[in-house]
């Protein structure tokens, strides 16, 4: 199993027109009693755009698992303005809300307007409008706009900021005809579309980590035949080496203010956690012992770092207060806990948990001490990464003979699989909000 290999690595050292989708989203478990909503195909005036905006919105809301969407495969009336809606028809379908819109060509651009309408509220059509906005974009930006509209709808109905405009980073591993492997650091939309390679190498790449502003990714590369840490600009592709000490250079994690990285170095013996000031290049050692200390992650307030350590005999999660120096063990459920990260509220941590030789994604409530296993597939899971709104966890999984990505809601109610179309996908990282 890959996570054991990673941990043992430390131990052994010291003893179409339509945008292409690299990943296919498959909803395997949705919320019981999901919110019913109708998404009407948008009316088009002028040349047909390259993107079907209403279909993208439908897919976004369906894949969230929190909506039961009535789309153009069910609807047989197609209003584009609230005055045209037959409310009794949509109530008969069972929809609580209705999304309608228009796309009008304006020169070389498209003007896109949409309305979110309550199927039950108000004495007049206009009083039923919950949300109405208009945008003008190029054809190339229609998919991004569709995700933005999905975000607006999701937030208005659920009260939680949407994550459809965020992005995913992951490692794509492809077997070559000569038997070698090629690794690529990819960045794609959250639904798997618009994949872009930031780095391709015949040597391993691992541990991608987004900067808090989403402009850079830190990662580990073995291109010099040993582990080194690089920073790369997502927009320009510019990259530079920031750590190549003798021994291990691994597991980069950004501080909340983006000014420091927590990293793992073994330059003085056993793997320990350090912080690296990116402006001054000053190193500060955080853990100082002969245990294996790895996989750091900062608390949202920047006052502590959690990490994986075998100081108690098996990998578990510990927390170090950066002011007092106090170290506290956090996990006790299962005989293996690793790859921890905080949720946005700072009150929970998501971990990779092993119980009875089965690896699952779990979440620990730091206030109550309650631990909940989120995945129950029995698959070989790894590398959890939490969405910026705290609602979902992205992770690597082994299913049907292939490494791919999975998603699970932090309450366990929604699960998705994201098989790759062009290789095996692993070691994912969810971006922060990008706007």
Q: Care to describe what's here?
A:
With 435 residues, this protein is mainly β. It contains four helices and 31 strands. The chain folds into two domains: 133 residues, TolB, N-terminal domain (Rossmann fold); 265 residues, TolB, C-terminal domain (Neuraminidase, 6 Propeller), CATH 2.120.10. Helix 2 crosses helix 4. The longest helix has 17 residues. The chain is globular. The two termini are 37 Å apart. About 3% of the residues have low confidence.
Q: Can you count the beta strands?
A: 31
Mean pLDDT: 91
The CATH topology assignment of the largest domain is: Neuraminidase
Helix content: 10-25%
CATH architecture of the largest domain: 6 Propeller
Shape: globular
Poorly predicted ranges? 4-18
- Global structural class: mainly beta
Number of domains as seen in the coordinates: 2
| Count of helix runs | 4
Radius of gyration: 23 Å
Intertermini distance: 37 Å
**Which range does the strand content fall in?**
35-45%
Write down the CATH class of the largest domain: Mainly Beta
CATH superfamily label of the largest domain:
TolB, C-terminal domain
Q: Largest beta sheet, briefly?
A: 6 strands, mixed
């Amino acid at each position: 199993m890959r996570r054991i290999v990673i941990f043992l690595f430390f131990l052994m050292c010291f003893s179409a027109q339509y945008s292409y989708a690299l990943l296919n989203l498959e909803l395997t478990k949705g919320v019981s009693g999901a919110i019913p909503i109708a998404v009407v195909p948008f009316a088009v005036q002028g040349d047909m755009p390259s993107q079907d905006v209403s279909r993208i919105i439908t897919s976004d809301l369906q894949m969230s698992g929190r909506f039961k969407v009535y789309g153009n495969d069910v609807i047989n009336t197609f209003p584009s303005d609230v005055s045209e809606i037959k409310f009794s028809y949509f109530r008969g379908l069972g929809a609580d809300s209705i999304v309608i819109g228009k796309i009008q060509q304006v020169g070389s651009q498209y003007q896109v307007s949409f309305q979110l309408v309550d199927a039950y509220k108000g004495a007049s059509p206009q009083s039923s409008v919950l949300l109405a906005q208009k945008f003008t974009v190029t054809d190339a930006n229609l998919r991004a706009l569709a995700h933005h509209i999905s975000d607006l709808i999701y937030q208005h109905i659920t009260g939680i900021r949407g994550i459809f405009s965020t992005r995913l980073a992951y490692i794509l591993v492809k077997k070559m005809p000569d038997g070698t492997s090629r690794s690529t650091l990819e960045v794609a939309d959250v639904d798997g579309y618009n994949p872009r390679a930031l780095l391709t190498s015949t040597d391993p790449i691992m541990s991608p980590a987004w900067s808090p502003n989403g402009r850079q990714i830190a990662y580990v590369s073995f291109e010099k035949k040993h582990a080194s840490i690089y920073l790369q600009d997502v927009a320009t592709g510019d990259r530079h080496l920031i750590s190549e000490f003798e021994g291990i250079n691994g597991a980069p994690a950004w501080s909340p203010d983006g000014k420091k990285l927590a990293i793992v170095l073994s330059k003085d013996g056993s793997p320990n956690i350090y912080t690296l000031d990116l402006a001054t290049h000053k190193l500060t050692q955080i853990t100082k012992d002969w245990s294996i200390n790895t996989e750091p992650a900062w608390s949202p307030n920047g006052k502590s770092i959690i990490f994986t350590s075998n100081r108690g005999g098996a990998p578990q999660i510990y927390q170090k207060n950066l002011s007092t120096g106090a170290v506290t063990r956090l996990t006790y459920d299962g005989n293996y806990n690793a790859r921890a990260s905080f949720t946005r509220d700072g009150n929970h941590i998501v971990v990779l948990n092993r119980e009875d030789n089965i690896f699952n994604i779990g979440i620990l409530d730091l206030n109550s001490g309650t631990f909940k296993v989120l995945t129950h597939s029995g698959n070989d899971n790894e590398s959890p990464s939490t969405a910026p709104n705290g609602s979902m966890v992205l992770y690597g999984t082994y299913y049907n003979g292939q490494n791919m990505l999975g998603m699970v809601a932090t309450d366990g109610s929604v699960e998705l699989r994201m098989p790759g179309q062009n290789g095996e996908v692993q070691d994912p990282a969810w971006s922060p909000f990008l706007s």
